[in-house]
Structure formats: C-alpha cells, structure tokens
Amino acid sequence: MAAFDTTRPAPFGAITTYGFVQVFASIRERMVGWNDTRRTRRALNALSDRDLADIGLTRADVERVAMGQHG
User: Are 40 and 66 in contact (CB under 8 A)?
Assistant: First the structure.
C-alpha cells in the first residue's frame, strides 16, 4: 500500500485572513456579552424590592447576577 502526502501549505494570506476573522468574532462575542449583562441589569433593576426577594435576590445582588457570577 502506498502512502501519499496530502498536506499542503495554506494559500497566501489565508492565515492573515483567519486572524482578522478571529479578531472580529472576538469583538462580536464581547459585544453580545456586554449587551446581555446590560439587559439583565436593566431588567433586575426594574423589579421592586419585593419582587427581587421573591426570586431570592437583594439590590446588592443585581450586579453580581448581571455579570453572571453565582454563589
């Protein structure tokens, strides 16, 4: 049985293009995370203290929960 070398170098500029795509994907991911945090914080701040107590939170917990930290 014969073995063939099927590896080839990446086309010129492919690695650079991939790097740019990764940078923009990272920026988009951060923006989505920031927006989720903002929306969560806004929704929790709109609740009354009694509503927060019903779900086991206090005003002091809002930022921690919005940032996705548990415990």
Answer: yes
Question: Is 4 a member of any domain?
Answer: no
The alpha carbon of residue 21 and the mean position of all alpha carbons in its chain are separated, in whole angstroms, by 16
Q: Please check whether residue 6 is in contact with residue 31, taking contact to mean a CB–CB distance below 8 angstroms.
A: no
Q: What is the pLDDT along the chain (71 residues), one digit of tens a residue?
A: 567 777 777 777 888 899 999 999 999 999 999 999 999 999 999 999 999 999 999 999 999 999 887 65
**Structural domain count of the chain:** 1
pTM, 2 dp: 0.68
Q: How many CB atoms lie within 10 A of CB 71?
A: 3
Is 42 inside a domain boundary? yes
CB 31 within 8 A of CB 23: no
